[in-house]
Each structure stands twice: as C-alpha cells, then as structure tokens.
Design goal:
Layout (H helix, E strand, L loop, with lengths): L2 E3 L2 E3 L4 H12 L5 E4 L3 H9 L1 H8 L3 E2 L4 H9 L10 H15 L2 E6 L4 H12 L4 E6 L6 H11 L3 E5 L4 H13 L3 E4 L3 H5 L8 H5 L3 H8 L4 H4 L1 H16 L1
Helix pairs in contact: 1-5, 2-3, 2-13, 3-8, 4-13, 7-8
Length: 240
C-alpha cells in the first residue's frame, strides 16, 4: 500500500528494499518504470492530472528528498527513509554490473550521456553500456527504435519531470527494456559535470540549499518547497 502525499503515492521502502525491488522488476518480463518525485514534482502533479497519472502509474515511486519525508510525517503517514534517485541508480548499477546487465543512457546535453557511460563502465567493470542519446530530440520514434535495437535491459531516462515520466509511460513497452528509471539531472552527476552536495549537507536534509547556493538561478524552482509545505499543512487540516 502506497503512502499518499498530496495525491502522489509513494512506496514505503528503505533504500535496500527499493534496490531489491528494482532488481526484481529488471528481471521480470514486460516493461516497468521508476519515478523519483521530490516536492517540486509533487506540486507539478497537483496541477497536472496527466503528470500525476504518469507518476502514480510507475511500478516504483520513491521519495527523492527530505521534503517528501517531512511532508509524509506531518500527515501522520511516515515513510521509512528518503531514497534519492541518484543513489538508487548507483546501487542499481552496481547490481546490474554483477549480473552483466546492459544500460542505455538517455538525456542531458550532447556528449554528457556518453561521458556518464564511460565513467560508469570504468567504475563498474561488469556493466554493459548499450548506448546513449542526448535529450535534445524532437521525435520519440527514432530514439525508441535505437534503444530497442541496442537490446538494453535498463534505461536511465533523464529528461526532467514530468517529461521523463510521460515519456516512460508512453514508450516504455516499445523500447524492449525491462526497466526504465526517471532520474532528472543524474547524468550530469554521473558524467562529473555536476557535484553532489557533501555528506554533511545531505545528512541534515540541506542538499537543496547547497544546490541553491551553487546555482542561484534555481530559486524559482526552489520556491516550490515552501509551497509544498503549505499545501501539506492544509491537507493535514482537512484530514482531521
């Protein structure tokens, strides 16, 4: 049973449990996809029925960020822990390397996905990089066909939310992959283009503030967090 936070249902799992479920889906027939919403994406889902349906339609919905954890706790339905998409992906890739699975990287600026693939392959020698494509494409069909031809077991779809969730919901089956993961800007991190917040900031739930200090232009997006908390308080009042 999922935990409902402002209309988005989150799977109540530890990171270890989430990775195990990702592995299970990866080895299960058919196409499955993972969504990793943060408060900003929850707010998008409140405004867009299409986005909400795509996120809730995922086989695995993980809370990316301390904001969702705090929101769930405020509503009296706590989640076990935050499971950031970038960390989930790293653990999953490690398991994929052990099993000799193949990965396709989709998204980011030209060249970034290729760089990410090279670094991931170097870090996880057993991992097979099936292919890569940037996120600057106009038509889905050629990209979907390229993934299908590559024979990838898994696809990291990094197109930004909710575009990536809508893309996975629409095209997942046609790619031939068993698992697709919507991971936002993770390819920039894997490629070494963007640095994650130091452990101190992450441990204290301040990764968002660290990113804001590094990229002040994100202020508009970051304003979604206090709005999210306002809506959580309103929902808490309605549930009483």
């Amino acid at each position: 049973m999922r935990i409902n936070v402002l209309g988005v249902g989150f799977d109540n799992l530890t990171m270890a449990e989430a990775v195990a479920e990702g592995q299970r889906l990866l080895n299960t027939a058919g196409a499955h996809y993972v969504a990793t919403p943060n408060p900003e994406i929850v707010e998008v889902c409140r405004e867009s029925e299409e986005a909400r349906a795509a996120v809730n339609g995922a086989d695995l919905v993980l809370p990316d960020g301390i904001g969702v954890i705090k929101g769930a706790a405020m509503l009296g339905t706590p989640l076990k822990e935050k499971t950031p998409g970038i960390e989930f992906a790293g653990h999953l890739v490690e398991k994929m390397a052990e099993e000799g699975k193949s990965l396709y990287l989709l998204g980011a600026k030209p060249g970034v996905a290729e760089e990410a693939g090279e670094r991931l392959r170097a870090k996880y020698p057993g991992l097979k990089i099936a292919g890569a494509h940037d996120g600057y494409f106009q038509e889905d069909a050629p990209v979907v066909e390229a993934i299908r031809q590559s024979g990838a077991d898994c696809v990291f779809v990094c197109l930004g939310a909710p575009k990536q969730e809508l893309w996975m919901a629409k095209n997942g089956e046609a790619t031939g992959a068993h698992l697709l993961c919507g991971l936002g800007g993770s390819l920039d991190v894997f490629a070494g283009r963007v640095e994650r917040a130091p452990e101190f900031w992450s441990r204290h739930g301040l990764e968002w503030f660290y990113r804001l200090c590094k990229e002040p232009s994100r202020i508009g997006r970051m304003m979604k967090l206090p709005l999210f908390l306002v809506h959580v308080k309103q929902e808490k009042g309605r549930r009483k």
